[in-house]
Design goal:
The chain is α+β, with helices and mostly antiparallel strands and 176 residues long. It folds into 2 domains: 106 residues, no CATH class; 49 residues, no CATH class. 26% of the residues lie in helices and 41% in strands. It contains 4 helices and 8 strands. Strands 2-1-5-6 form a 4-stranded antiparallel beta sheet, with no helix packed on it. It has a 4-stranded antiparallel beta sheet with strand order 3-8-7-4, with no helix packed on it. A hairpin with a 2-residue loop joins strand 5 and strand 6. The chain is elongated. It starts with a strand and ends with a helix.
């Protein structure tokens, strides 16, 4: 049985008891981590493809250690210009070991956390009463933020004549 799973923005083909090097995860060494974004599952002849992910599928892994990868040398040169730049880079990696692959029945942990956040903003509604007082101040400030074309359309709607020769300051004065 194997699965194709997305871990830290990259896709990996994983099997049980396989060790994989992935981009640095924020989990401590020795802790278990699960990945919900399973794109494909294969169990012998049975292949399940997600659209884009399989609901209820999950891959469990254990963080073995954090380490740095091999040094990569980046050398840039422009001929006949005396331009040479040499940089090195070592990628931060995490070694994980795949412990289990669950085809169905896994509980998504992210869905439970999202529900309480949506309930909190509904409780605050007294801001509606304060807005009509500040509308006159906002209207004069909004006129200066508007473009000349928008000001001309607003002047046409109010029935002001001679707007074709007016500048922005004149249009703002006429509208307020």
């Amino acid at each position: 049985m194997y699965a194709i799973v997305e871990i830290a923005g990259q896709q990996f083909k994983v099997e049980k008891d396989q060790k994989v090097f992935v981009h640095r995860l924020q989990t401590e060494e020795g802790k278990k981590v699960s990945f919900d974004n399973v794109l494909l599952l294969s169990d012998g002849d049975k292949v399940t493809v997600g659209a884009p992910a399989i609901d209820g599928a999950q891959v469990g892994a254990k963080v073995l250690k954090h380490l740095k990868g091999d040094k990569v040398i980046v050398f840039k040169k422009k001929r006949r210009k005396g331009y040479r730049v040499k940089n090195g880079h070592r990628q931060s990696l995490t070694e994980i070991q795949i412990e289990n692959i669950v085809a169905s029945g896994a509980k998504p942990a992210k869905a439970e956390k999202a529900a309480p956040k949506k309930a909190e903003p509904k409780a605050t509604t007294p801001k509606v009463e304060a807005k009509p007082v500040a509308k006159k101040e906002e209207a004069t400030q909004d006129l200066s933020k508007m473009t000349v074309a928008e000001l001309k359309e607003a002047a046409k709607a109010k029935g002001i004549t001679g707007i074709s020769s007016m500048k922005k300051a004149d249009l703002i004065a006429a509208l307020s």
